[in-house]
Specification:
The complex is a heterodimer of chains A (about 280) and B (about 280). With about 280 residues, chain A is mostly helical. Chain A has one domain: MetI-like (MetI-like fold). Helix content of chain A is about 75%, strand content about 0%. Chain B is globular and about 60 Å long. Chain B has one domain: P-loop containing nucleotide triphosphate hydrolases (Rossmann fold, 3-Layer(aba) Sandwich), CATH 3.40.50.300. The chains are: A mainly alpha (about 280), B alpha/beta (about 280).
Chain lengths: ~280, ~280
């Protein structure tokens, strides 16, 4: 299979071929997901408890990763922030994948005018920067997680639908599809039972990569103050809250969330790419 | 004289400037077996795809038991009725089965669609038995099976629908010779048991000799010769049929002489075509 997943320029150079890198990334993804799931039990304290006596304190026994400019424990905020920081991209990816697959399958299977209409309209979305769309929607609907998630889902839909369309175009030429047609199965049945399960691994690999990008986009929006409400712990928000501390020489509370964001995005990218590689190798 | 089950009249199909199928007409008797032979590009696969309904003809009719099946099927009942008229066994058993579906699931799917009320488990065992596969193969994915086994699965899947006619598009070409013989024997047995009519699309004259009653020879989309298989193979009338027969390697076989004959044939037909137009 020659399908190429859509990756952004900087990260496309990361090759997932090396086993240790893949395992390390997979391990990190599992770690982050576990941290998010178990955050309330793992966190040493309330992420919003203000300890003004310890403002900008370094790592200590009480606060393992230090305290931010408002006197809040950085570790607790990182752990609980993982929840909001992962649930947002999850929403983006789930919506973009479901809608993208539906659009892509319809366009690839039916072809003709439907393909033209769907392909051109998704290209229109491509032409409009996702972040701008998100900012627009947030300014209209106010802050909160739902608006930017929906906006980014629409922005990510073309990545999935374009990939799905090309996969469906290749898949429908395979004789087993003709065999099912001859058997009298309807197009809908063939698509749902055979075509989509066969292309699913590649689409899921793309969605995994998209997850990383959505995470960095949502973190960017939070950093701009357009994502989650002010007090909710969130990695992007933590970078924003911590930037004044960097100027005053206490970088930990801002740099740690930066690091976590970058590592998570890279990890999802490598894992997704690796999965796509494995599918391609199996098909050969 | 037995009744006609399949009647094809004046079938035409062009792709761009190429006449893939040009005025093809033939009939298939009830429970009969008709071979269509020709080299690659002679239009035999296009003919098969039109008859099955995977492609539309530009002109001509395909009648099954007298009812036209050239028009597009609309609605589930029509679709199923058409599927029960003609089934197709594809050339490449490695590609004609969904790689993610087990043998049993593939058969069950066909049965559930066409015969929702019968005992599927029993019928699956019956079908597997009919094509000489054990119940052990039932739970296997296609990639665990050999080429011959896969083709048996494809045949079982076609039989599950209980069609009146089965089109076999180079159905044994991808198999090695000993397996070919087994599958051909199997097909002959099935025809004897069920009375399904066969339309054998092949380039292999040996296959035609084994399993068909009648044969038509196609070249450049046209039928150049037709008749009872034994007769056509014993006393070929058209130079192209003779050429096909001579192309089968045997002792004393001279490919150079063959190439000369092929050139001579294409020259005469080209000249014939230019005087036509």
């Amino acid at each position: 299979m020659t399908t190429v997943l859509t990756r952004r320029p900087g990260l496309a150079r990361l090759r997932a071929a090396r086993q240790p890198l893949y395992l390390a990334c997979l391990g990190f993804v599992v770690l982050v997901v576990l941290a998010a799931l178990l955050a309330p039990w793992l966190a040493p304290g309330d992420p919003n408890t203000v300890d003004l006596g310890n403002v900008l304190a370094g790592p200590s026994a009480d606060h393992l990763l230090g305290v931010d400019a408002a006197g809040r424990d950085t570790l607790s905020r990182l752990l609980l922030g993982a929840r909001t920081s992962l649930i947002g991209p999850l929403g983006v990816v789930v919506f973009a994948t479901l809608a993208g697959v539906a659009v892509g399958v319809a366009a690839g299977w039916r072809g003709g005018w439907l393909d033209s209409v769907l392909s051109r309209s998704t290209e229109l979305v491509f032409a409009f920067p996702g972040m701008l769309l998100a900012i627009l929607i947030v300014t209209v609907y106010g802050e909160g997680l739902l608006a930017p998630v929906l906006a980014l889902a629409i922005a990510y839909l073309p990545y999935v639908s374009r990939l799905t369309r090309s996969l469906v175009l290749a898949e429908r030429e395979r004789p087993y599809v003709a065999a099912y047609q001859v058997q009298g199965h309807s197009s809908l049945q063939i698509c749902l039972r055979h075509v989509i399960p066969n292309i699913a691994p590649v689409v899921l690999a793309q969605s995994t990569i998209n997850f990383g990008y959505a995470l960095i986009d949502l973190a960017g929006l939070s950093y701009l103050g357009l994502g989650v409400p002010a007090l909710t712990p969130d990695w992007g928000r933590m970078v924003f809250d911590g930037q004044t501390a960097i100027q005053r020489g206490y970088p930990l509370s801002a740099l740690l969330p930066c690091l976590v964001i970058v590592l998570t995005v890279v990890a999802f990218n490598v894992v997704g790419e690796r999965w796509a590689d494995q599918v391609a190798r199996r098909d050969r | 004289m037995p009744d006609t089950v399949l009647e094809v009249t004046g079938l035409r199909r062009t792709f761009g400037t190429v006449r893939a199928v040009d005025d093809v007409s033939f009939t298939l008797a009830e429970g009969g077996s008709l071979g269509i032979v020709g080299e690659s590009g002679s239009g035999k696969t296009s003919t098969a795809r039109i008859i099955v309904g995977l492609e539309r003809a530009d002109a001509g009719q395909v009648l099954l038991h007298g009812s036209d099946r050239t028009a597009r099927a609309r609605g589930k009942a029509r679709r199923l009725a058409r599927a029960r008229q003609i089934q197709l066994v594809f050339q490449d058993p490695y590609l004609s089965l969904d790689p993610r579906t087990t043998v049993e699931a593939a058969l069950r799917e066909a049965l559930r669609l066409h015969f929702p009320d019968i005992d599927h488990a029993r019928r699956i065992t019956e079908l597997l038995d009919q094509v000489g596969l054990g119940t052990r193969a039932a739970s296997a994915l296609p990639r665990r099976l050999s080429g011959g086994q896969r083709q048996r699965v494809a045949i079982a899947r076609a039989l599950a629908v209980e069609p009146a006619v089965m089109v076999l598009d180079e159905a044994v070409a991808a198999l090695d010779v000993s397996v070919q013989a087994q599958v051909l024997n199997l097909l002959a047995d099935i025809r004897a048991q069920t009375g399904i009519g066969y339309l054998f699309i092949t380039h292999d004259l040996g296959v035609v000799r084994c399993v068909t009653d009648d044969v038509i020879v196609m070249r450049h989309g046209r039928i150049v010769e037709s008749g009872p298989t034994a007769e056509v193979l014993a006393t070929p009338q058209h130079p192209y049929t003779r050429l096909l027969l001579d192309s089968v390697p045997r002792p004393g076989w001279d490919p150079r002489q063959l190439a000369a004959a092929r050139r001579a044939l294409s020259l005469t037909t080209n000249r014939g075509n230019s005087t036509d137009s």
